[in-house]
Structures are given as C-alpha cells and as structure tokens.
Specification:
Elements lengths: L7 E5 L2 E6 L5 H8 L6 E8 L3 E2 L2 E2 L2 E6 L1 H18 L4 E7 L1 E4 L3 E9 L2 H18 L2 E6 L6 E5 L7 E2 L11
Helix pairs in contact: 2-3
C-alpha cells in the first residue's frame, strides 16, 4: 500500500490512520504495529461478501469526507491505545469500489499481551463502525440497483434510484 496520490493519512506517535482508493496491504498494516515491546499483534480485515440480507451483492462502494473521517479515526485510535495500553494502532479504510473478497478496512493493534490486543482491536473496530463518517453503497446488480447506508452492521439503507439522472423528465 505504498502511498498513492489519492491516499490521505494522519500519523501520531505509534498511530497511523488512513484512507485510500488502492488495494489494502495486510503485510504493511501488520508491520506498522510490530514492536520489540509487543508480544501480540491482532489484525482485523473486513472484506466484501457476496450477499447482504439474502440479496446478491455485486460490490460495495465507500465514500467519506476525508478531513472529518481521519480526525474521528485518529480520536478512536488514541482512545483505544490509551485504554488498553496498546503499543501501536493502525486503521486504514478503502474508498471507492471494493470488489467481492477484497478488504475494505484493516485494523491492526499491538500490545505487550494478547488480552489487551484482542480487546483493543475489537473495540477499535466497533467504534469505527459506530462513529467513523464512511458511507457505503451496496450494489445488488440487476434492476434492484443499490442501497446507500452508514457503514454500520444491519442498519437500514436508502434505495438508490436506478434511473439515469441525465434522462430527467420534468
């Protein structure tokens, strides 16, 4: 995940948060949290699955307002790092179209011991899903079109009009 021109990130001490349209690199994210002080590294990789609520999904598309999103991600990373005495935290979210089986988010944490890493990693994920300003379009394909929703598990979305806006007939 070398820095493409579209990548945006914030780094602070042992914290890295980022947004990119490029494919996410699990090895780079894992490496970013490794430390001689850490006996545990936990990596969460959120991937695009091929269905939602019984409907086939063609792909997901993510969007955000980067300045606000990065600020929120940094705040979450700082909070969980302090609360769980983590060594390092990295959270990177992909934007744009994310095909089936590809990662949309990577969260990696390290800590001296495994319990802190497990708990810190899970809390970072849950807070990210709850608070980070990322929206996703679930494209179902066919005539059904897609649904925009906040990036939260199981939250209702808004049906996207499949009519071409250039064909507006007023």
């Amino acid at each position: 995940m070398s820095e493409p021109p579209d990548a945006q990130e914030l780094r602070h001490a042992d914290i890295w948060v980022g947004l990119t349209h490029s494919t996410l690199d699990t090895a780079e994210v894992m490496s970013s949290v490794k430390s001689p002080k850490a006996g545990a590294v936990v990596l969460f990789a959120g991937t695009t699955r091929d269905n939602f609520d019984g409907k086939p999904v063609a792909h997901l598309e993510y969007s955000s307002y980067a300045p606000l999103t990065l600020k929120t991600m940094l705040s979450i990373a700082q909070s969980v790092k302090q609360k769980h005495a983590l060594t390092a935290v990295t959270m990177v979210h992909r934007l744009g179209v994310v095909p089936i089986k590809e990662e949309s988010i990577l969260i990696a944490v390290s800590a001296p011991h495994r319990q802190a890493a497990w708990r810190g990693g899970e809390e970072a994920l849950e807070l990210c899903k709850e608070k980070v300003e990322v929206w996703k379009l679930e494209e179902f394909g066919g005539d059904e079109g897609g649904v925009w929703r906040a990036n939260r598990d199981g939250q209702p979305g808004v049906q996207v009009d499949t009519v071409d806006p250039s064909q507006n007939q007023e």
